[in-house]
Amino acid sequence: MIYILDTADLASIKRCNEFYPLSGVTTNPSIIARANTDFWKLLLDIREIIGDEKMLHVQTTAKKAEDIVSEAKLLRERLGENFYVKIPIGEEGLKSTVALKKLGIGVTMTAIFTPSQALMASVAGADFVAPYVNRLDKIGGDGARVVAEIVELLDIHGLDTKVLAASFKNTEQVHKCALCGCHSVTVTEDILKDLISYPLTDAAVEGFDRDWRSVYGNKKISDM
Ligand code: E4P
Q: Which of 86, 162, 193, 220 is catalytic?
């Protein structure tokens, strides 16, 4: 499983990058707008925090294939090799994906809501496809089911594209995706924290501390 952080909040990126086994950061225009700051400085700061070896996914705002390709080239030039341009699925997006693959630029096809969209994106050459789980659940759909079908389709057709499930609001959604073999998820800091929290874990650790202190006081193993 590849865990990616879905935010442009620098403090959150710093914290999560230090403590969690993250493979990178994803953003989208809404996330960037929420930060409401200088676009390039923000992205370069993110790159500095995560380093060159981790992935940075940034969405294009262009609509025509030629413009998407130009934006992707510019983003990749400034943000380094481990970069993926996020492109919403659509005719222009597919056309630009084919061109970008020839240039060796990573593509994450985003705003995916159906298995058919994902399959087409994969055949065009997308490295990742990003289905939005919670947005489907919210309208009475089954986001995890869609993710499972995409994983199955890619497997049946022997395609290398990875599924990067996105738009999560709780750990159950993440768990269902992990269970069906989804390759990667992009989540917020809150979800990361919830994924490792459990009341019995806290109680167990408190018990260990209490029992140790009852015999050895404040001594550490290095003092023994
Ligand atoms: C991925 O990068 C998506 O843009 C993002 O996860 C969407 O999440 P939302 O549905 O919470 O806006």
A: 86
DSSP classification of residue 170: S
Whole-angstrom distance, CA of residue 56 vs CA of residue 44: 10
pLDDT 10s digits, 93-105: 999 999 999 999 9
- C-alpha 167 to ligand 1 mean position (Å): 4
The residues lining ligand 1, judged by C-beta closer than 6 Å to any ligand atom, are: 6, 26, 28, 110, 130, 132, 134-135, 166-167, 186
Give the whole-angstrom CA distance, residue 138 versus residue 141.
7
Is the CB of residue 86 less than 8 Å from the CB of residue 110? yes
- The SS3 call for residue 112 is strand
Top mutation candidate among 4, 28, 58 for ligand 1, by most atoms within 8 Å of CB: 28
pLDDT digits (tens, 9 = 90+) for 19-69: 999 999 999 999 999 999 999 999 999 999 999 999 999 999 999 999 999
pTM: 0.96
- Residues facing residue 55 across a β-bridge: 24
> Residue 183 and residue 201: Cα distance in Å, rounded?
27
How far, in Å, from the CA of 174 to the mean position of ligand 1? 13
State the burial class of residue 145 (Cβ atoms within 10 Å of its Cβ: 0-12, 13-18, 19+).
Answer: middle
Rounded CA-CA distance 64/194 in Å is 40
